[in-house]
Write a structure and sequence with these properties.
Blueprint lengths: L5 H60 L8 H7 L5 H38 L6 H22 L3
């Protein structure tokens, strides 16, 4: 092995190149890991600060709510809202109309739901039930007696 043949020298060169690549890859991986951990740390710090900031603003809002605003006097309200202000009257009318429409739609939906429930209840009645026939006969007899007593003059 005293003389290096070309194939042996190529093999040694390849091994040296591979070991150098491995060293480079290891250092690159370490840099990427360091960068990733730095990003995670930065994200954690930002999240903590944002949480702190939000909690602080929420506590300030509740502190402001504890102090009730004084009710405006009648004179202040009358000075602010004049009856001859057409724009204000139109706005109030629009708000009232919208709310009344909302109420009417809500009431209509309640009535539809009740009607649907009544239909479902009627469909569930077992018409072959003997107790049901007895009850119907009793109601008919009572009504017929009432009708006869009403028609007969005293």
């Amino acid at each position: 092995m005293g003389c290096n043949t070309s194939s042996e020298s190529k093999t040694k060169k390849d091994e040296q190149a591979q070991s150098q690549d491995n060293t480079n890859n290891t250092s690159e991986n370490k840099q990427k890991e360091d960068q990733a951990s730095e990003e995670q740390a930065a994200t954690k710090i930002q999240a903590a600060f944002r949480g702190h900031k939000t909690r602080k603003s929420m506590s300030m809002k509740t502190a402001k709510k504890t102090e009730p605003e004084p009710e405006p006097t009648r004179a202040e309200l009358e000075a602010e809202f004049r009856a001859d202000d057409k724009e204000l009257c139109n706005a109030a009318t629009k708000i009232q109309a919208s709310f009344r429409g909302h109420q009417a739609r809500k009431q209509t939906q309640v009535e539809k739901d009740k009607e649907q429930q009544d239909k479902e209840d009627i469909e569930k009645i077992d018409l072959t039930d003997p107790e049901l026939n007895k009850a119907a006969t009793k109601i008919q007899a009572s009504f017929r007696g009432h009708k006869v007593r009403k028609d007969v003059p005293n």
